[in-house]
Amino acid sequence: MRGSPSPSDSDLYLKLKWLMFARVLFTTLLLGSTVILQLSEAVPPLAPALLVLYGLIISIFFLSFIYTVALNRVSHVLRFAYIQIGGDTLIVSLVVFVTGNFSSIFSFLYLVVIIYSSILLARKGSIVIALLCSCQYALLLVFEYSGLFTPFALEEGPAFIHIAWTQVLYKVLITTFGCFAVAFLSSLLAEQTRKTKIELWAMEDHVKRVEKMAAIGEMAAGLAHEIKNPLASLSGSIQILKDGVELDADHARLMQIVLREADRLSSLANNFLLFARPPAGRVENIELDKAILETVELFEKDGSCQDRISIHTDISRNLFIAMDPIHFRQVLWNLLLNAAEAIDVEGSIDIKLHSLKNHHALIEITDNGCGMSNETMKSIFDPFFTTKQNGTGLGLSIVHSILESYDGRLDVKSKDGTGTTFTLNLMQTVPPT
């Protein structure tokens, strides 16, 4: 049975269903036009060209039925797409052969196959299909020129006429050029459409996340304030009692536990406030390469990283952003700590910094740790969600809130068992003169 598909497989699966529907629709139109042509031109019902064409139409209907049944059972959707589209090139070649070969008006169908192959198979696949179409059409013309077979035509009598080799060569070259040109251009447009769609999905997820966290933040701010005031009174009262009353060892130990847990709760409330309403920082122009390298140098000496994780950097120079340096270091440190904690024993963290065309700076932090499932990734920015034994679940929420206050964006890509990449998208500023 067909397993649970990945998002890319699901998209390809849906496109294949539309392709099969379009193929059946085209075959129906081909059948209808063939019948109309037979009636209007008074072509004999048993004419060889018609018999071959009717056989081809029946075969396409049968193949479409087979494809529909098999689609729900295949495990490799991309391979199945190659098989279908490769079969379509053979069908087009048969249509061209039946309708006159060199003089056929249906050679444009090769271009149609190449166009939808670029949508389903991307650039590499469309180039392969363009090569396949060019070779098949060239073979048809060469066989016709050499007299190995005489093509059919829908009119009475054979469609063979004498053609010069220069005409064959010219038509093969023109068709080949057209196939590869269409493959390149259509795959380019399809790739741009894919990237735009992915960017729109990312923006949609970001907007939903921001709206959700804004609602949680409003509630969190009020709740944290309500907790901090009585907590401060409670902690102060316990401290006075501890200092003013003679206690035995057990009571002193209990008092110490109360104070310790009160401090922990106060720290948690402060983190909650930081997530809900990040304080306005002292905005400065930060030279990203220097700030990243300084933070990495400190992190390499931290106990969570030292002697077990190697950090590699690929950093572009002369990129600046406007941000509080303390906030930037806090964001970067949290993400590095998150990457280090995802690595069980030994591993590596890669940090890349480069500039985008829209005056944004992109920082990518990639680890080769345990990775995350799709279900986990949906919740990692939610407050108090954590997969760590001693985590509070506020680290990534705080990072997200800080970046949001500077019109930045945080995206994540991960695969269970492979690793995770966090991407910071920040607006660049003009370097100081």
Structure report:
This protein is an alpha+beta fold. It folds into 3 domains: 7-205, no CATH class; 217-276; 284-427, Histidine kinase-like ATPase, C-terminal domain (Heat Shock Protein 90, 2-Layer Sandwich), CATH 3.30.565.10. Helices cover 63% and strands 11% of the residues. The chain has 10 helices and 7 strands. The protein has helices at residues 7-41, 48-71, 77-98, 109-146, 165-244, 249-276, 288-300, 325-341, 374-377, 395-405, and strands spanning 284-287, 309-315, 320-323, 347-355, 360-367, 409-415, 419-427. The strands form 2 sheets. It has a 5-stranded mixed β-sheet, with helices on one face. A two-stranded antiparallel sheet has the order 1-3. Strand 6 (409-415) and strand 7 (419-427) form a beta hairpin. It is elongated. Mean pLDDT is 79; it is low at 1-7 and 154-160.
Keywords:
elongated, two-stranded antiparallel sheet, 63% helix, 10 helices, five-stranded mixed beta sheet, disordered N terminus, alpha+beta, Heat Shock Protein 90, 433 residues, 3 domains
The structure class reads: alpha+beta
Largest sheet: 5 strands, mixed
Globular, elongated, flat, extended or rod-shaped: what is the shape?
Answer: elongated
Mean pLDDT, to the nearest integer, reads: 79
Rounded radius of gyration (Å) = 33 Å
Approximate strand percentage: 5-15%
Pattern of helices and strands: HHHHHHEHEEHEEHHEE
The amount of helix comes to: 55-70%
Total count of strands: 7
Strand arrangement within the widest β-sheet reads: 2-4-5-7-6
Ends apart, CA distance between termini: 64 Å
Summed up, the helix count is 10
The low-confidence runs, each spanning 5 or more residues with pLDDT under 50, are 1-7, 154-160
The total tally of domains equals 3
